[in-house]
């Protein structure tokens, strides 16, 4: 989102309250969505649930092409369309909903830094495993990514996307890494998160922040998604406080809220459960 | 103990031990950890054992190029600047390094390699002057291509061009990152108390070039200079850990600039002269050939097998 658009959005956004009919778009849950997109989408859902803002999840095969930034998920609120967690956090803050107002300057700096840690290491590792590990790419990623399209478009789009991700990996110096090194990085990242969390219920003590939503989105998705091997989820399972952190957020913000509002399975968008 | 570790990195200028962020990170980390290194400050990446700079050459494990790998390798050799950090501080260091790489790095690349004025007047000029003769014609532009590609892919925007909008977005992120760093640093000398860690090396590597290199369009620099504790942090590290460089930078700037301005045009002049002579010679030869003043005849040498008789001499003269 450009700066001019941002300023415009925040001006308009402040005027209007959060509507009841906000919609979050993501790719098809059963056949199409990939680990990394699913994680980002879950992070946004967790964030909005933490704020208590209602949003309906819609699955569209072309969600990626509907999004203004080309990345999923994106939300459609009133007249505005906002994609990805960072801009969505700014957008909700402009409307007067924020999770991180109670933090002091140093804590806010640390929160931002840990969010970049998740983006820099976990998200990149997810992309690497999806597209650069040939087994996973051939068995899971390419078939799923291209499932809505017919031949020959399915092959063209899948290989185009794979080529794009691989170029990105070589630009940031990940192309030379082996799968073991990537697992090692994930492990290092989880260890850092685990150390930071310690025995607290959330990363900054009692109140959840957008960092909690982001970490939950990624860890929960990795834990509940089956890949060719379960090495990735095993890395997380060795940190018990991260596991109970995921369970806590799942229970507090997904299960109890769903039970309360009797929404049932149709809006229960998170997929499988940890229990 | 003999230290068989060798480090290859870009050479310095503007009072910096090296002009390149990655090289600066590694150099600073090695100084913080007290590693005995044989440092080769060079300006030809093809001379490095890995083909890129910086590179660490060890006897046992071969060579490494990325700063993170080099730091891991130094740690394996028991040179660890993060030894005193608690587990939580180690986690914080990792998080802030990610913040630097995601938010500040693209803006830094933009300021040095994409901004047309800075690239033409400072970056390309420095690399073209310092890289040796045939390479200096294409290496700077190839490096620019790589850096531009990196920013584009990190930004997820394949059409990023130098311009107002890209600059605003990248610099807004960078400014936020620098503010966060400044808040985290507070009035401390280093990020985790009194001794420097890997995070200090990364912050130094990213900020010192912005502080020291004089850029014609300097919006990002001015924003950094407004954050007093960060500028103090960098000059502190320069004077404490790189005393020779900072003195050099202080005592020689005038002579260097003069030397630079005389020297700069000299090789270009010679190249241009050489090039124009070559073009002229080629044109004259071409004309001579086309108009038939000089003709090239293909004289076929007849080679006969066995003991054939020597041909009569008059046939050759005909």
TrEMBL record, chain A:
Domain Metaxin glutathione S-transferase positions: 187-249
Listed SUPFAM superfamilies? GST C-terminal domain-like (SSF47616)
Gene3D superfamilies in the cross-refs: 1.20.1050.10, Glutaredoxin
Q: What is its main location?
A: mitochondrion
Say what the protein does. Answer: Involved in transport of proteins into the mitochondrion.
Q: Name one GO biological process term.
A: protein transport
Q: List localization entries.
A: Mitochondrion outer membrane
Q: Hey, which family's this protein in?
A: Belongs to the metaxin family.
What is the protein's given name? Metaxin-2
- Oligomeric form and interacting partners: Interacts with MTX1/metaxin-1. Associates with the mitochondrial contact site and cristae organizing system (MICOS) complex, composed of at least MICOS10/MIC10, CHCHD3/MIC19, CHCHD6/MIC25, APOOL/MIC27, IMMT/MIC60, APOO/MIC23/MIC26 and QIL1/MIC13. This complex was also known under the names MINOS or MitOS complex. The MICOS complex associates with mitochondrial outer membrane proteins SAMM50, MTX1 and MTX2 (together described as components of the mitochondrial outer membrane sorting assembly machinery (SAM) complex) and DNAJC11, mitochondrial inner membrane protein TMEM11 and with HSPA9.
Keywords of the record? Acetylation, Membrane, Mitochondrion, Mitochondrion outer membrane, Protein transport, Transport
Any matching Pfam family: Tom37
Does the record's keyword annotation contain Transport?
Answer: yes
Q: Name one GO cellular component term.
A: SAM complex
Show the InterPro entries listed in the entry: Glutathione-S-Trfase_C_sf, Glutathione_S-Trfase, Metaxin_GST, Mito_Protein_Transport_Metaxin, Sam37/metaxin_N
Q: Where is the Mitochondrial outer membrane transport complex Sam37/metaxin N-terminal domain?
A: 41-162
UniProtKB/TrEMBL annotation, chain B:
Q: Is Protein biosynthesis set as a keyword in this record?
A: no
Q: Which GO terms describe its biological process?
A: mitochondrion organization; protein transport
Q: Which segments cross the bilayer?
A: 274-296
Give start and end of each Mitochondrial outer membrane transport complex Sam37/metaxin N-terminal domain.
23-144
Tell whether Amino-acid biosynthesis is among the UniProt keywords.
no
Q: What is its main location?
A: mitochondrion
A single cellular component GO annotation: SAM complex
Which compartment or compartments is the protein found in? Mitochondrion outer membrane
- Stretches assigned to the Metaxin glutathione S-transferase domain: 176-237
Keywords attached to this entry? Isopeptide bond, Membrane, Mitochondrion, Mitochondrion outer membrane, Protein transport, Transmembrane, Transmembrane helix, Transport, Ubl conjugation
Q: How does it assemble?
A: Interacts with MTX2/metaxin-2. Associates with the mitochondrial contact site and cristae organizing system (MICOS) complex, composed of at least MICOS10/MIC10, CHCHD3/MIC19, CHCHD6/MIC25, APOOL/MIC27, IMMT/MIC60, APOO/MIC23/MIC26 and QIL1/MIC13. This complex was also known under the names MINOS or MitOS complex. The MICOS complex associates with mitochondrial outer membrane proteins SAMM50, MTX1 and MTX2 (together described as components of the mitochondrial outer membrane sorting assembly machinery (SAM) complex) and DNAJC11, mitochondrial inner membrane protein TMEM11 and with HSPA9.
Which family does the entry's similarity section mention? Belongs to the metaxin family.
What does the UniProt function comment say about this protein? Involved in transport of proteins into the mitochondrion. Essential for embryonic development.
How is this protein named in the record? Metaxin
Q: Which organism is it from?
A: Hemibagrus wyckioides
């Amino acid at each position: 989102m450009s700066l001019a658009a941002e300023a415009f959005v925040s001006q308009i956004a402040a005027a209007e309250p959060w509507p009841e009919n906000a919609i979050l778009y993501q790719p098809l849950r059963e056949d199409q969505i990939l680990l990394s997109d699913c994680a980002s989408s879950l992070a946004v859902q967790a964030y909005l649930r933490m704020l208590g803002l209602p949003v309906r999840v819609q699955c569209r095969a072309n969600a990626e092409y509907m999004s203004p930034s080309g990345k999923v998920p994106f939300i459609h609120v009133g007249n505005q369309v906002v994609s990805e967690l960072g801009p969505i956090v700014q957008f909700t803050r402009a409307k007067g909903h924020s999770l991180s107002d109670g933090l002091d300057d140093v804590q806010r700096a640390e929160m931002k830094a840990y969010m970049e840690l998740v983006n820099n290491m976990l998200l990149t590792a997810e992309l690497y495993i999806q597209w650069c590990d040939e087994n996973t790419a051939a068995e899971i990623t390419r078939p799923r990514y291209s499932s809505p399209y017919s031949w020959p478009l399915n092959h063209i789009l899948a290989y185009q996307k794979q080529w794009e991700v691989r170029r990105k990996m070589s630009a940031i110096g990940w192309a030379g890494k082996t799968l073991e090194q990537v697992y090692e990085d994930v492990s290092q990242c989880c260890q850092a998160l685990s150390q930071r969390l310690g025995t607290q219920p959330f990363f900054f003590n009692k109140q959840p922040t957008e960092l909690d939503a982001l970490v939950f989105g990624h860890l929960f998705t990795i834990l509940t998604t089956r890949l060719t091997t379960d090495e990735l989820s095993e890395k997380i399972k060795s940190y018990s406080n991260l596991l109970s952190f995921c369970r806590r957020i799942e229970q507090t913000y997904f299960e109890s809220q769903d039970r309360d509002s009797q929404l049932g399975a149709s809006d229960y968008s998170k997929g499988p459960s940890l229990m | 103990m003999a230290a068989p570790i060798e480090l290859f990195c870009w050479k310095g200028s503007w009072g910096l031990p090296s002009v390149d962020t990655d090289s600066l990170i590694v150099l600073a980390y090695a100084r913080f950890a007290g590693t005995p290194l044989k440092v080769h400050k060079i300006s030809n990446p093809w001379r490095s054992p890995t083909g890129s700079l910086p590179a660490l050459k060890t006897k046992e494990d071969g060579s490494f190029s990325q700063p993170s790998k080099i730091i891991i390798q130094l740690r394996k050799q028991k040179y660890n600047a993060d030894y005193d950090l608690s587990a939580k501080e180690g986690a914080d260091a990792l998080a802030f390094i990610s913040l630097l790489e995601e938010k500040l790095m693209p803006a830094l690349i933009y300021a040095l390699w994409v901004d047309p004025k800075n690239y033409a007047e400072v970056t390309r000029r420095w690399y073209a002057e310092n890289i040796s003769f045939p390479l200096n014609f294409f290496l700077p532009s190839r490096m620019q291509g790589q850096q531009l590609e990196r920013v584009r892919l990190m930004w997820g925007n394949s059409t990023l061009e130098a311009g107002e909008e890209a600059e605003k977005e990248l610099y807004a992120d960078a400014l936020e990152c620098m503010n966060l760093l400044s808040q985290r640093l507070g009035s401390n000398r280093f990020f985790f108390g009194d001794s420097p860690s890997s995070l200090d090396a990364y912050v130094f590597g990213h900020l010192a070039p912005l502080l020291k290199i004089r850029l014609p369009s300097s919006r990002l620099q001015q924003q950094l200079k407004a954050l007093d504790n960060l500028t103090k942090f960098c000059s502190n590290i320069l004077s404490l850990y790189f005393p020779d460089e900072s003195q050099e930078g202080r005592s020689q700037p005038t002579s260097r600039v003069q030397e630079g301005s005389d020297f700069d045009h000299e090789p270009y002049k010679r190249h241009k002269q050489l090039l124009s002579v070559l073009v002229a010679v080629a044109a004259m030869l071409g004309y001579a050939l086309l108009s038939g003043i000089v003709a090239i005849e293909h004289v076929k040498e007849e080679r006969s097998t066995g003991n054939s008789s020597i041909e009569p001499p008059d046939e050759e003269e005909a």
